[in-house]
Amino acid sequence: MTALAPQTIFLKDYAEPHHWVETVHLTFALAPRATRVTSKIVFTPNTNNLGDLILNGEQLSLKSVTVNGAPVSYEVTDTHLTVKQADLPCEPFTFEAEVEISPETNTALEGLYMSSGMYCTQCEAEGFRKITYYPDRPDVMAVFTVRVESDLPVMLSNGNPQAAGAGWAEWHDPWPKPAYLFALVAGDLLAHSGSFTTMSGKDVDLNIYVRKGDEDKCAFGMQALIDSMRWDERVYGREYDLDIFNIVAVDDFNMGAMENKGLNIFNSSCVLASPETSTDATFERVEGIIAHEYFHNWTGNRITCRDWFQLCLKEGLTVYRDQMFSGDMRSHAVKRIEEVLQLRARQFREDNGPLAHNVRPESFVEINNFYTATVYEKGAEVIGMLRRLIGDEAYYKGCTLYFDRHDGQAVTIEDWIKVFEEVTGRDLAHFAQWYSQAGTPRLTVNETWDNGTLTLNFTQSTPATPGQEVKKPQVLPIMVGLIAPDGTEVVPSTVLEMTESAQSFTFDGLSERPVASILRDFSAPVILQREMDAKTRAFLLAHDTDPFNTWEMGRMLAKDTLVAMIVDGVEPARDYLDALKTMVTDATKDPAFRALCLALPSQDDMAQTLFDAGVTPDPMAIYEARENLRHILAAELKDDLPALYAANDAGAFKPDADGSGKRSLRMAVLSLLTLNDQGTAAQNLFETADNMTEQAGALTALLSAGIGQEELASFYAQWFHDRLVMDKWFMMQVAAAAPLDAARIAQTLTEHADFSMKNPNRFRAVFGALAGNHGGFHAPDGAAYKLLADWLIQLDPLNPQTTARMCGAFETWKRYDADRGDMITTQLKRILATKGLSGDTTEMVTRILGA
Ligand code: PHE
Ligand code: ZN
């Protein structure tokens, strides 16, 4: 029984398992430190690939094993249980085992664990092997029947309830599924119930299970679930397939939520919402994640992944689906801008650093490390590009064929691409390169005008990424429109399909030279490099019909302004200030859109922008320039801010697009207003607000202006009993801290009685905020680097998955000066030298260092 060195697993090595599973019967006798798991599994030898029975199993205390009721010889290691082929029947056989596990001491939050007195599970990606011996791989799909025994009043598993009595409950899931979708919950829980009638008239019971005290935070999530179910029927023709759909809120959870069949388990921060305790951003996130997990029922569960390299098959597609849903529920324009902000902040950052990888990776050590912005968000962009290239009709036709053909199967990206090749008759091999080539393409464009003909000359190139030196041109759908000098659109949006390194497209019959609006709706995930003067940007800002590009022009003006302030120390350009003022005060425009225009590019975004322009970013200079610009904007808009603030009072709280749009503009205005009025308006709002969006918005405005300590204390006194609001309290202080204070504030907060590193939300509240406070994280003394490393070293033995994810904070180290680079790599090496460091963290740190 020796621990093996972590192995690299390769996509090219995929082989079918030696055995398939027909049915699984599991019995759980729950006890905090000694849960008995009895399994009865019917295996069928795989005639394509006969061999030993190989089962995964980790941290299990094995009690007994039989095959067809009789003892059998087997071999056990730290990771596997193997029965030799020679010792097994050639026909289907029944394997039975009994193991003991300890949920109470399971701090990794993977497998069966306890959270605030309840039992719950997390099996994706490879957590089921910590529950019992099993072929824990997604291509093994089986029908599960589960019996739970405990004194707790609520006992849940996947599928439909089958029978129950005092101290036990049985569940049966008729749909074959891989083990990663298994779930079990038991606790003293309350249900917020609802119901849904499917398009074929079947009634489904819906429940959101929560701990006592949270039952008044479920109504919004329930409505989001009902809206999602209806949307998937209407848009994709997908109907729900069980009698019951349960959601459980759990306080301790490594990720956002999990799509277990019929029993979704949610981080409580992603399902609970009430006006008093949750911001508009939380409501929007809850709606999107409920939809995401529900949509997995078809894209992930009914059709699953053959192996974990295909993760984007379910995640990219499901993110794309939840994005479309949210756009339909709210505003497509606003949603698209938010998506691009996220993509640039997370995925471009990843794609331009040492962790860059393919949307479909070709090797990994620990699959947990590949639940990334690239797999999820870039994976979704790839689906969006596919749809743009083949059109809506072919897209939905292909999806329907995919559902019909592959229902009940574990499939690959090739299977996904093939349905679209069939419905369009097109060869999509070149397009599919998006799955196998990492890196963000740089797209350049220049224009020539000749006697009524406009020519757009494009070039594309993708910088090298780790392990991929040579890049090929990608297929880029470039959506373009042309605007005449008088502001009318002379050529509406058309999609140009670029496939070469250099390619030109012409538009003729034009009477005057138009201004081109390029990459509308951000039609491809590229960095567009286009020389453009401030006047042209301002022209498009005023006249473009594409809301994304309108916003983008304002964004480019803001970035140019900040770059000039940082690099040349000049004052902001008049064109920018005038354009911004016009946009923000234009009451005919959507407030949510105006709020997005008013928001300045983040410090991290500016650091990457400078780096791309060949300038080593100085985090302190970036911070100073951005603060300086905030003060200049506050002065420029001095007379407008009070009126804007008053006009965007949304009245009684409703978490819809209208109300949240007004509040987001109002909070952006308040943040500037606070720089002019010494905090009077913000203090006033803090006292009187009846919703968390405005209460937290006011507090953030005060803290960002360097005041608000009294309000911070009264916020604590009001909310100390509410875990999710307390996460905000921890987070806001670190996020709003000035660079030289951030590490000290974070450090002090770790000493607070309410800090606990065992709760991922609380750990992330402090350290996610520290890593996200660009100036604070990169303060010249390196204190933040050291503090984060100290805590990652402490967390790793308890929770490797969350530790490994948070190492991403260091992924940008090559952007900065040699001093910072040295300080960061010193900390990374210190982490790596820690005795007994987990495989998860070892892989991440090694990749970041670029060994
Ligand atoms: N599959 C989950 C989702 O996309 C994410 C997740 C991965 C959750 C791994 C837990 C563990 O919603
Ligand atoms: Zn997902």
Task: Give the topology, please.
Blueprint: E1 9-10, E2 19-29, E3 35-45, E4 53-56, E5 61-67, E6 70-71, E7 75-76, E8 80-83, E9 93-101, E10 111-115, E11 118-122, E12 142-149, E13 154-157, E14 160-165, E15 168-177, E16 184-187, E17 189-197, E18 203-211, H1 219-236, E19 244-250, E20 257-258, E21 263-267, H2 280-295, E22 304-305, H3 311-329, H4 332-351, E23 363-364, H5 373-390, H6 392-406, E24 410-411, H7 413-424, E25 442-450, E26 453-461, E27 476-483, E28 489-498, E29 502-507, E30 515-518, E31 527-529, H8 534-543, H9 547-568, H10 574-585, H11 591-598, H12 603-612, H13 619-636, H14 641-647, H15 657-676, H16 680-688, H17 692-704, H18 709-719, H19 723-735, H20 739-750, H21 760-772, H22 774-777, H23 783-795, H24 800-806, H25 818-832, H26 839-849
Parallel strand pairs: 2-12, 18-19, 19-21, 22-24, 25-31
Antiparallel strand pairs: 1-23, 2-3, 3-9, 4-8, 5-6, 5-9, 7-8, 10-11, 11-16, 12-15, 13-16, 14-15, 17-18, 20-21, 25-26, 26-29, 27-28, 27-30
Helix pairs in contact: 1-2, 2-3, 3-4, 3-5, 4-5, 5-6, 6-7, 8-9, 8-10, 9-10, 10-11, 11-15, 13-15, 14-15, 15-17, 16-17, 18-19, 19-20, 19-21, 23-25, 24-26, 25-26
The chain binds phenylalanine and zinc ion.
Zinc ion is lined by residues 292, 296, 315, 318.
